[in-house]
Write a structure and sequence with these properties.
The protein is of the alpha/beta class. The chain has 10 helices and 15 strands. The strands form 3 sheets. Strands 3, 4, 5, 6, 7, 14 and 15 form a 7-stranded mixed β-sheet that branches. Helix 8 (258-269) links the parallel strand 12 (245-253) and strand 13. Helix 3 crosses helix 4 (173-182) and helix 3 (132-145) packs across helix 9 (285-297). The relative contact order is 0.16.
Length: 339
């Protein structure tokens, strides 16, 4: 397979802010893989909360570290060229990768480190697989950080925990519900009224409309106190969590900000048994391989909110920024070749 040359279509932004209207369609040179990297002909990328938050300047001036910037940290496609020293892939391999913080997924070609790239089973589509690197891995790591055992082989009444997932119909939340349930735990989920049936079908024992008084207070309909919370929503102060937590309950915040960081530090200083833990984690190959295996076996399901071609990436970006996407927003790039 000849290495591609010339230019490619891409979507980028050149300043902080601007939302979907700040995205620009451009022609840029096709990147070349450096040592330890692979060049991927892109089939799909997904839009994550992180994409929009970085555009809004939450990590300025460090992220993006320079403009213009091509976002898209989840990559799915076909290897077309190998950088020096890469021996575990070959041109033609179907792969999934994470390329954080460099992005590049909103383009026809992207490079990724071979150490953060994994083979995609033929049973898993590019659209489903590309939702794994950030969203599904974040769900798994958040549950683990909260002390939730995810091995079904060791599930028992003595290790079963009461788990709450907020924004449970969203990108990370819908994976967290399924993983917690697979581990044999009791799952309470909050979401909008239109998605109550969805989260129950994914494994939630209890589903709360977050707009109701009980949902706003995160109160379990059966009176459960939560041992672990995967907090995917925004706008809940610590004072809302404290009354509904078990004696040693842990809340893992997947989109931490300044306030959650300060709260976590104060709790450590005061030796609080109820804890808020900001999650700062990165996907590893073994995490992606495990979750892709679950998708292959049909044990894990990806909920796709919408699929958009690269030329309409701004529509997917706007949907993700709205905070009301059900599951994942995916950008499809080019026509996938037969498996």
């Amino acid at each position: 397979m000849a290495a591609p040359s010339g230019t490619m279509r891409a979507v980028q932004y050149d300043r902080y802010g601007g939302g979907a209207q700040g995205l620009k369609h451009v022609e840029v040179p096709i990147p070349s893989p450096k040592k330890g990297e692979v060049l991927i002909r892109m089939e799909a990328t997904s839009i994550n909360v992180a994409d929009c938050r970085f555009q809004n300047g939450i990590a300025r001036p460090f992220m993006p570290w320079r403009f213009p910037f091509i976002s898209g940290f989840d990559l799915a496609g076909e290897v077309v060229e190998l950088g020096a020293g890469v021996s575990n892939f070959k041109p033609g391999d179907k792969v999934i990768a994470i390329n954080f913080p460099n992005g590049g997924g909103l383009a026809e070609y992207a490079v990724a480190s071979a150490s953060r790239t994994v083979a995609r089973p033929p049973e898993v589509s590019a659209v489903d697989g590309v939702c794994v690197p950030i969203a599904a891995v974040t769900a798994r790591l958040a549950l683990q950080r909260a002390g939730v055992n995810l091995d079904p082989a060791h599930a028992s009444t003595t290790t079963r925990k009461n788990v709450l997932v907020t924004a449970a119909s969203g990108a990370v939340g819908h994976f967290a519900v399924q993983l917690a349930r697979m581990g044999g735990h009791n799952v309470t989920a909050t979401c909008g009224a239109r998605n109550l049936g969805l989260v129950q079908s994914l494994g939630a024992d209890e589903a709360l409309d977050y707009k109701t008084p009980e949902g706003a207070k995160l109160r379990s309909p059966s009176g459960r106190e939560y041992d672990a919370v995967v907090h995917c929503a925004t706008g809940f102060p610590w004072s809302v969590f404290r009354p509904v937590l078990a004696a040693k309950g842990t809340v893992v915040d997947i989109t931490p900000g300044f306030v959650s960081g300060v709260t976590a530090i104060l709790q450590m200083l005061t030796f609080s048994k109820k804890r808020l833990v900001p999650l700062l984690a990165m996907a590893k190959k073994e995490d992606m391989e495990l979750l892709l295996g679950m998708l292959k076996q049909g044990r894990l399901k990806t909920v796709i909110d919408s699929r958009h071609p690269l030329g309409s990436a701004h529509e997917g970006w706007a949907k993700s920024m709205s905070g009301h996407a059900t599951g994942k927003v995916v950008i499809e790039i080019g026509a996938a070749k037969p498996e």
